[in-house]
Amino acid sequence: MLDTTLPQPVRGSARQPVAVMIQVTDLHKQLRSGTRTLSILKGITFSVPAGEFLAIMGSSGSGKSTLLGLLAGLDTPTSGDVHLNGQAISYLAEDKLAGIRGRTLGFVFQSYQLIPTLTALENVLLPHELNADTKSPGGSQAEGLARARQLLSAVGLADRTDHYPVQLSGGEQQRVALARAFVLQPPIVLADEPTGNLDSANGQAVLDLLLDLNRREGTTLVLVTHDPAVAALAHRRITLKDGQILSDERSS
Ligand SMILES: Nc1ncnc2c1ncn2[C@@H]1O[C@H](COP(=O)(O)OP(=O)(O)O)[C@@H](O)[C@H]1O
Ligand SMILES: [Mg+2]
Q1: In a domain, 14, yes or no
Q2: 35, 55, 161, 163: which one has the fewest Cβ atoms less than 10 Å from its Cβ?
Q3: Helix, strand, coil shares of the chain as percentages rounded to 5?
Q4: Ligand 1 in contact with 185 (CB < 6 A)?
Q5: Strand, coil or helix: what is 68?
Q6: d(CA 123, CA 197)
Q7: Does any domain span residue 196?
Q8: Parallel/antiparallel/unpaired status of strands 87-88 and 79-84
Q9: Residue 37 falls in which region: left (phi positive, over 0), alpha (psi -120 to 50) or beta
């Protein structure tokens, strides 16, 4: 199903090999609700080696999305720290953070979050446009365009590049979002229930493509899922309960 012509990523020579790709240290998140303080995350510590596929599990409300938002630097912890690829990200100013995020992370959300006024191809290219200043050497406009086309082809949408999101099914929109997540060759991809809005056939197709891209690109993948069958495919499963780690187990 995948287009086997997709080139292997060329890592910038300046990037040092780092054994630990994600380091989370005693992460706490509290929110104020009226006069009450809600403890959403209560001291989360773990590290993820480069190349690992980690599933985050736990019942609804256990803190999975909050944790992923903190890993992505989309939210600031109350205390504790997140290091991505050796860099502390949790308390950086937005402009610095945006550059690191662009170079380091791809995201896939449950709601596809495509820009409705951009075509599929333009949506996939958007991270490239937004990171024009920070992307690695060799990331010219033409190369970005070629890679965006190759990724759309890899997810089976070569004939949909000029369609707008409203002209695409949910499964197709999520495949566009996958291509977008990988366009800058990020070392880390974060996915929050990426198949949660899809029926089982489309969900399976999106999951297969995500895992295939991930394997091919050698990314570190953190995938939030409710589905034990999906989590069973991961190298490792961390289960949250009430904002704490209930279990952390590796496949043998
Ligand atoms: N902005 C918010 N305001 C109040 N409570 C929130 C907010 N965001 C999340 N929560 C609460 O934090 C807890 C964890 O939420 P979340 O991280 O979305 O869990 P999950 O993704 O595991 O379902 C839930 O109890 C949720 O109600
Ligand atoms: Mg969630």
Answers
A1: no
A2: 35
A3: 35, 25, 40
A4: no
A5: helix
A6: 19
A7: yes
A8: antiparallel
A9: beta
Print the domain residue range for 149: 20-250
Residues forming beta bridges with residue 189, ordered by sequence position: 106, 221
Q: Predicted confidence band at 99 (pLDDT cuts at 50, 70, 90)? A: confident
Collapsing DSSP states into helix, strand and coil, what is residue 27?
Answer: strand
The pLDDT assigned to 226 comes to 86
Atom of ligand 1 nearest to the CA of 38: 5
- pLDDT digit string (tens) for 86-95? 999 999 998 8
What is the predicted pLDDT for the residue at 51? 93
For residue 95, what pLDDT is reported? 87
Ligand 1 in reach of 65 Cβ (< 6 A): yes
Helix, strand or coil for residue 148? helix
- The arithmetic mean of pLDDT across residues 48-71, rounded, is 96
DSSP one-letter string for 158-188: GGGTT--GGGS-HHHHHHHHHHHHHTT--SE
Query: Whole-angstrom Cα distance, residue 197 to residue 199?
Result: 7
Report how far apart, in Å, the C-alpha atoms of 151 and of each of 7, 55, 68, 121, 182 are.
10, 24, 24, 10, 8
Q: How far is the CA of 49 from the centre of ligand 2 (A)?
A: 23
CA dist 2 and 117 (Å) reads 27
Kindly state whether residue 5 falls inside one of the protein's structural domains: no
CATH classification of the domain holding 156: 3.40.50.300
Cβ-contact 108, 179 below 8 angstroms: no
Q: Which atom of ligand 1 is nearest to the CA of 69?
A: 17
What 3-state DSSP class applies to 31?
A: strand
Q: What is the mean pLDDT of the chain?
A: 90
> CA 32 to CA 72: how far, in whole Å?
22
d(CA 227, CA 55): 10
